[in-house]
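From the pipeline queue, job 12 of 40. The input is one protein chain; the requested action is below.

Action: predict structure.
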Amino acid sequence: MKYENVKDFLKQQINSGAIKPGGKLPSIRELSEQWECSKNTVIRAIDELEKEHLIYSVPKSGYYVIVRSSQSEDRSEGRIDFAAAAPDTGVIPYEEIQHGLNRAIQLYGDRLFTYGDPLGFPSLREAISRHLVASQIFAGPERICVVSGAQQALHLLASMPFPNGKSAILVEQPCYAGMLNLLSLLGVTAIGISRTESGVDLDELERHFRNNSIKFFYTVPRYHNPMGTSLSRREKEAIAAMAEKYDVYIVEDDYLADLETDSKSDPIYSYDHSGHVIYIRSFSKIMLPGLRLGVAVLPEAFITLFRKYKSSSDLSTAALSQAALEIHLDSGLFQRHAAMMKDRYSIRMKALQEACSTYLNEGFRLSQSTGGIFAQLELPSHLPAEELAAALRQKDVYVFPTMHCYLPSVESANSLRLSIIRTNEQEIADGIRIIRQTADELTSPRKINKFNRSAITWI
């Protein structure tokens, strides 16, 4: 068909470098004249290339080739990275971001180079308020605080006193390693509650809420880090109800909400009727990792104190980053890129499930994650995760042992967190095959362990 000829031609131009990464495609009119076909035929060809994530659109500008980095300093040739948690630099739409930054300078001028409101640009908070509605988060801009990444919100909340006058923080086990590091550095009392693939034991959670002085319960209900699984609606409703009953706050880290594939999956916040849920959202995992932007939706009772702690931390979040995000949200660029990444990551997660089913025997078990970027691989008991990780590192395959996701007082699972955020389908298949091969080498009766067991710093 004619559109396939146009598509193949453009694809050849991209792959050969005739149209360079970041370069602009000929206009629809130019291609229509060149191929003597209708504009609809060209549009269909371009739509196909967008679905293959080879190009992206910039409204009122045209179509551009996605920048792909094969030998950047953070993605070496031949390296298979299952440990990364930041987006692949090769799929970040630099032209779009540059367009947004340039537009931000034009629109905001001097506002970008002065101190602003610690809670963020009023106009950005309004844009975020509108954006959150799609996730069943209904909050006016006066309750929204823009933060320098979700990590800053967690740090401020762990540091400041809460209205309930309580002091301990309850965390899931396993838990996001960055949160555990933060609590350790602050010297905060942390208590663990088991989180499994089937969720949280609600009876145990209620005992903690009733018997311990819990300031807040930190949870990642959607696409958990490191397991990749999500809580059910029943669990979310029960957690919100218990928070009200026992005057315990919930800090809901919804860092991957923009990648949700189930339109009926709502956050705990949507079931909160008493103002006990603090909702945190990140924009870094989708499109803008280096701009360090997140948002906290606060109960009214927190706003004044949070503002004081926020201003003592950084006075205000970087103005240029805020302006760029506002432009991306209002123009729909952020939403379109999020939709593209959602499709991309869904394909990769399916590839991970299939590769593990193909190459790993019954001694291994991968968590059944249906989306997001993480899954947890349980290992046979005779194969220590740290030893396997060290051996894989020598083969340029990087994984993240989940022992770093547990409190020191809690026995950790013998497992690895696998991330698909910086891999493609072929790398996933090759990486899982290498994991199996290396595991066989380590557990061979004739094997002599010569691997370097020097200390490794995990991020």
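Job complete. The radius of gyration is 24 Å.
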